[in-house]
Design a protein that fits this description.
homodimer, 183 residues, alpha+beta, four-stranded antiparallel beta sheet, 26% strand, globular
Chain lengths: 183, 183
C-alpha cells in the first residue's frame, strides 16, 4: 500500500470502492473487464478497490514511472500520451467511463507504457497487485473470473495491435518482420 | 472434446500428459508459461493436458480456423506463418521446445491468427478451454497461477508489439511535419 499511496498521493482518496459499487455496476455495459460480472460480484470486487478523484488537468500516471495498480474510470475522461522517438508526447487514445488503464503494470510490475491525464474531473477505482493477490486467495472464483477477463482483454488488444503492426510491415516491403506474437 | 478432436484428428494422440510430466518439467527454464511452476504443479497441470505427435511438415493449426486450445511444444520446432495482404504466407516466427502457441484462441475462441507447421518431428501438449475451466473449478489456486502467467505473457507481448507499432508509426513518411519537433 505504501507504493500505491506514493504514486497516488497527488489524488484525493475517497475511500474503498464499496459505496461506489452501484456506479461501478452501472458501467458494466461499457466495461470490457466487468462485462460478465453480476451485481454481487461487482460488490465483492469493490471491497478490494479504492476510489480516487482527479481534477481536470491531473497527470494520473506517468510514462516510465513504477506503479503496480490498474485504474477503472468511474466518471470523467482521460487522454493517453506516449513519447515518440523525439521525446514529444503523442496522443494515442482518449478513454472514458468504464474503461481500464494500467493493467500491464499491475500484472508485470514494469514501467508505465504511457501517461494518462484527466481532461475532465475524473473519479477512478484502483486495484493494486497486492489486492489482486488477496482476491485470488480469499475469493478464488472471483479471482479466476477477473483474471479470465484480463486475459481476454489483453488477447483482443494483442490481436488488434499485431494486425495493425503486420499491416504496416506489409506497406514496407524492405522491412524484415522478425517475431510477432503467435496464433 | 469433440471440437478439439476434429481440429487435432490429423495428429497422433499419445494420451494424457501425465506420463510426459518429467519432460514438461524439464522445459520450465525455457517456458514463459511455466517459469514459476513447481514439479508438483506441473504434474497436476499435466492431468488436464493431452499429448500429440506431429511428423515433419504437418500443418498443426491453420490461420482462420476455429479451435479453442493452446499448444506447448514438448519436442521439435514449428514455423509460424501469416498471410499478408496479397494472401502470401509470410514467416513471422520460429518456435521451439518450451514455447506456447494458440493462447489467444484458447481464451477468446476467435479464429487462429496464424498457421503453424512442424519443421521437425514435434511433440505437443494441448490444453483446451474446457480443461482450463475444469482446472479453475477443481484446482482454483493452480488455475489462478496459470491465468496469472497467461496475463503476464500477453501483457509482455502487448508491450513489445505496441512499442514496435509506435516505432513504425513514427517512421511513417506521411506524418504531419507539425508533429516533428523543430530545431
Amino acid at each position: 500500500m505504501a507504493e500505491q499511496a506514493a504514486h497516488l498521493s497527488h489524488l484525493e482518496h475517497l475511500g474503498d470502492a464499496t459505496k461506489f459499487s452501484p456506479q461501478i455496476h452501472a458501467l458494466i455495459p461499457k466495461c470490457d473487464l466487468l462485462e460478465n460480472f453480476s451485481p454481487a460480484e461487482v460488490r465483492l470486487l469493490a471491497h478490494f478497490m479504492d476510489v480516487y478523484q482527479a481534477p481536470l488537468g491531473t497527470e494520473i500516471i506517468r510514462e516510465g514511472d513504477g506503479g503496480d495498480f490498474m485504474l477503472m474510470l468511474v466518471e470523467g475522461k482521460v487522454e493517453v500520451h506516449k513519447r515518440d522517438r523525439w521525446n514529444t508526447p503523442q496522443l494515442i487514445a482518449v478513454v472514458d467511463a468504464g474503461k481500464t488503464l494500467g493493467e500491464m503494470s499491475m500484472i508485470d510490475g514494469e514501467a508505465r507504457f504511457a501517461t494518462c491525464v484527466a481532461t475532465e474531473a475524473t473519479v477512478l477505482a484502483v486495484l493494486d497487485r497486492e489486492n489482486l493477490a488477496r482476491i485470488i486467495v480469499e475469493q478464488p472464483l472471483l479471482g479466476a473470473k477477473l483474471l479470465m477477463e484480463l486475459v481476454l482483454m489483453l488477447s483482443q488488444r494483442l490481436r488488434a495491435t499485431s494486425g495493425r503492426l503486420l499491416d504496416l510491415i506489409d506497406e514496407q516491403p524492405q522491412r524484415l518482420p522478425g517475431n510477432v506474437p503467435g496464433p
